Amino acid sequence: MQLPLELGHDPAADRDHLLISRSIMPAIDLIDRWPHWHTPVTVLVGPPGSGKTHLSTIWKGLSQARPVTAELREGRPVAARHGAFLFEDADREAFDETGLFHLINTVRQHGGSLLITARSLPQLWPITLPDLKSRLAAATTVEIGAPDDALLQQVIFKLFADRQLEVDDRLVAYVVTRMERSLDAASQIVDQIDKLALSRNRRITRALAAEVLAAREAI
């Protein structure tokens, strides 16, 4: 057995590499319609690995949005007047509710835009400030749906390509029909297959993929 090195793999995250499927089309339409949004504040909701980061990165480049996640997490004031702002993973950790409330008001007053990403709907967040609850209830919420087989196959091909690895259609189809229905699971499976192949100095085969899938089922 060889010990695979953690060299890192940089995924392609521009508009041309965005994977298209029915489940993500409402979110893509949201990004493409900016700056002509129905409301100045939009919440993009989806499970881990669903494409929220990819989409927010595209929007950030398009809108020149300023990231405000650190300020809101740490309770520092956000000096905002004009422009676009990005608050990522809002429901992952506590944030300054008053700070977000004031940012939303500023965006509304000055014709700006605020994109918030999260794993769950805003009404499920443990918010105690009534005025902030009201502001979030008035925001546009766009959900990324569960991935279908076509999207899972695209994602797995892309994840292998990001690692400069080529795999055939039959292997990917084999994995998709036996894996959890999650893009986060797809990322984990590709990583585990790659590491196992490297550790054994073997090429990626269906038998090796089957071993990884069986090990995941046994957990």
Description of the molecule:
- With 219 residues, this protein is α/β, with parallel strands linked by helices.
- The chain is built from nine helices and five strands.
- It has helices at residues 25-33, 52-63, 69-74, 97-110, 130-137, 149-162, 169-176, 183-200, 206-218; strands spanning 41-45, 66-67, 84-87, 113-118, 140-143.
- It has a five-stranded parallel sheet with strand order 2-3-4-1-5, sandwiched between helices.
- Helix 1 (25-33) packs parallel to helix 2 (52-63) and helix 6 crosses helix 8.
- It is elongated and about 60 Å long.
- The two termini are 22 Å apart.
- Mean pLDDT is 89; it is low at 1-8.
Radius of gyration (CA) equals: 20 Å
Strand and helix order: HEHEHEHEHEHHHH
Give a quick account of the main beta sheet: strands, pairing sense, barrel closure. 5 strands, parallel
Helix content: 40-55%
* Stretches with pLDDT under 50, minimum 5 residues: 1-8
The percent range for strand residues is 5-15%
* Number of beta strands: 5
Please state the average pLDDT score: 89
Topology:
Blueprint: H1 25-33, E1 41-45, H2 52-63, E2 66-67, H3 69-74, E3 84-87, H4 97-110, E4 113-118, H5 130-137, E5 140-143, H6 149-162, H7 169-176, H8 183-200, H9 206-218
Parallel strand pairs: 1-4, 1-5, 2-3, 3-4
